[in-house]
Design goal:
The protein is an alpha/beta fold. Helix content is 33%, strand content 33%. It has nine helices and 15 strands.
């Protein structure tokens, strides 16, 4: 039985506690939150779970094997570091840390202590992303050309991070997981309109093999959009995460280019074949992720969303902030 302590019971914390408690091989035995009213609710829902307003009660407890950190990003480093120093595995909400240096230190510490870090990139465990990963690995789309993502809605404004750090970690982590080409540079632009932090941003990431990715994140959109397009030389894919059933569609469309001997003009023909909808497994992503965390800890397996993958996402986030401040200056990764 993996004994888990949870720090933070705000927006996402209840989902974390519920899913870990639903697993046969795990149990949330202690929870910490600064809000005593929240702790009262926890005691009613989970009478066997001890509660506290002091995180050190969990971080230093010899009865706890792993700590789930569900708190604002600026607190992640210190809490995760203390957990690792006390011999505990770490499950931490995205984004991993506030800086690349912090992420690197935690990755090094976890390796030294032989402990697992899992960053909560829940989308990697959805049926849609698993299917997209499978299609790309099987070369169904062919050579990849581009990744185009739009994640916009009205709010929710954050007080500690801008729209990139709030929304883009999802898409950066998904691209990192499904696309084999590694990022080499990026350029970003964003603007502040309300709370002193960028609420609209556009990020262009340049990758190996002429692969390019573009991300549009926005807290000021009149509509909620969760669309991703991935194009290859064989087929193209559209993922609409707001669709109830047909989330992923594959289009047999593309461009065929030929050249004639001694003729410089390109001969371009457009290919338009069938479109089809692959079967997507119905998965409760967070439950699957929680089960995977327990499996990785018990069997000493490296998670796909480990500290190293979390570090790669933080590198892109940090470079994005630097480029925005420099009005779109190209930042090498």
């Amino acid at each position: 039985m993996l004994r888990i302590g949870v720090i933070g019971y705000g927006y996402w914390g209840p989902n974390i506690v519920r899913n870990f408690n639903a697993i046969d091989g795990a149990k949330v035995i202690s929870l910490c939150d600064l809000n005593t009213n929240v702790l009262g609710k926890v005691s009613k829902l989970y009478p066997a779970t001890t509660t506290s307003t002091d995180a050190m009660d969990i971080l230093s407890s010899k009865d706890i094997d792993a700590v789930a950190i569900i708190t604002p990003v600026y607190t992640h480093f210190e809490l995760a570091k203390k957990a690792l120093q006390n011999g505990k595995h770490v499950f931490v909400e995205k984004p991993f840390t506030s800086t690349v240096a912090q992420a690197e230190e935690l990755v090094e510490l976890a390796a030294k202590k032989n402990l697992q870090i899992m960053v909560d990139h829940t989308f990697l465990f959805t049926g849609a992303v698993k299917k997209i990963k499978q299609l790309i690995d099987e070369r169904e789309l062919g050579k990849l050309y581009y990744y185009d993502s739009m994640r916009v809605n009205l709010g929710l404004f954050q007080h500690d991070v801008n729209v990139v750090w709030d929304l883009a970690p999802h898409d950066f982590a998904i691209m990192d997981y499904v696309v084999p080409e590694r990022p080499i540079a990026l350029s970003a632009n964003g603007e502040v309109h309300y709370n002193g932090l960028e609420d609209v941003a556009y990020v262009t990431v340049y990758c190996e093999n002429n692969f390019i990715a573009h991300f549009n994140v926005n807290w000021l959109s009149p509509v909620k959009v969760r669309n991703t397009l991935i194009g290859g030389d064989k087929k193209m894919l559209v993922w609409n995460d707001l669709e109830a059933d047909e989330k992923v569609k594959i289009y047999d469309k593309g461009v065929d280019v030929e050249t004639r001997e001694n003729v410089y003009d390109l001969l371009v023909s457009y290919r338009s074949g069938d479109a089809w909808v692959p079967r997507i497994a119905q998965i409760e992503a967070l439950k699957a992720e929680a089960e995977y965390f327990v499996d990785c800890v018990e069997n000493n397996k490296t998670p796909i969303n480990d500290g190293v993958s979390g570090l790669r996402v933080v590198k892109i986030l940090e470079a994005t902030n630097a480029s925005i401040k420099a009005k779109g200056h190209l930042i090498e990764l």
